[in-house]
Amino acid sequence: MRAFVRVESPDGRLHELVHGDIVGRLRAAALHLDDGRVSEAHAMVSLREGELRLVALRGAFAVHGRPLSEVVLAPGQRIQLARDLELTVVDVVLPDHILAIEGDGLPRQALPGVCSLVPVPRPHLVAGWVEDADAWLWSTGSGWSVRQGDAPPRDLVPGDRVDCGGATFAIVALPVQHAGLEPTRQRGGIDAPLHLVARFDTVHVHRDGEPVLVLSGMLARIISELVSFGGPVAWQVLAGQLWPREDEAAVLRSRLDVNLSRLRRKLREARVRTDLVATDGAGSIELLTYAHDRVEDQT
Asked: pLDDT at position 291, please?
């Protein structure tokens, strides 16, 4: 019950990538490419509406010579990241159902290949292994395992329950076509066309007939960074850009959660839809704009 793409890197090795995995120069990237022409977070694999896609982040790519910012992954594709630097899509596996988690305060979401349930500042799911988590979940290829505290790992199947921070979360089977963020689908709320002007230290949000919302400081930086990325980005990458001198993952996550909460409160108070900054539940964040919105990058 796992959706993944198998790609061949330039050195001939095979890599299995799942939703939220980063391709880039970062050593922490799921597919690390030690090449100066590759961006730190070059692209990301994303599960959207039942399809696995590669989404450009801070780098560009081309498929069979055609420059793209996003592509639905399919066997046989040759994805060029730089001259003479290609990834070959060997296989794409999309089962009927994938394993997901849900619970109070945690919307139903697909499990990344390795993830952690972290209790502070509130119980939430984080892609990757976090040392001080309450529980760790990972794919074994043919199934799933979970470990809680000092207990040995056990098999994880639909119907199981996992505790974190005093809350209990259910493991469920999720139809693959319902998995992942649906970026262009109306989620409700106030949907007046937005005109965003990102200037790094400030962000102006314009709407017809409404006062301009001016964001500054860290709230402006969050939106400006998301504008610069131009697509979904792992929370670790975003937080690393915002606080480059901090290495502790738990501290970075706490700071990011606090500032995202402040940002959404500001948007709500100004009657701007709070899903402007959207999370997919598997560790990725993006600026969610609709077809009638306009974004100016003046960073």
From this structure: 67
Dihedral (CA of 97, 103, 107, 111) sign: negative
CA–chain centroid gap for 122, Å, is: 19
The answer to whether the CB of 19 falls within 8 A of the CB of 34 is no
- Cα gap 125→112, rounded to integer Å: 9
Q: Identify the band that residue 188 occupies on the pLDDT scale cut at 50, 70 and 90.
A: very low
Range 233-261 average pLDDT: 88
CATH number of 4-93: 2.60.200.20
Q: What are phi and psi of 204, to 5 degrees?
A: -105, 130
- Domain 195-297 sits in CATH 1.10.287.130: no
Work out the average pLDDT over 273-295. 79
| pLDDT tens digits along 37-61 | 998 888 888 887 778 899 888 778 9
DSSP 120: S
Rounded to whole angstroms, the Cα distance separating 216 from 204 reads 9
Which tokens hold the place of 155?
């098999």
**Prior bond of 95 cis (ω within 30°):** no
- Tell me how far apart the terminal alpha carbons of the chain are, to the nearest angstrom: 42
Residue 186: the pLDDT is: 38
pTM score = 0.56
Q: Which residue do the tokens 């017809």 mark? A: 208
Please state whether beta strands 4-8 and 85-93 pair in parallel, antiparallel, or not at all (unpaired).
antiparallel
Structure confidence by residue, pLDDT tens digits, 20-33: 788 988 887 889 99
**Cα–Cα dist 46/40, whole Å:** 17
CB 165 within 8 A of CB 177: no
Which residues make Cβ contacts (< 8 Å) with residue 279, sequence separation at least 6?
235, 260, 285
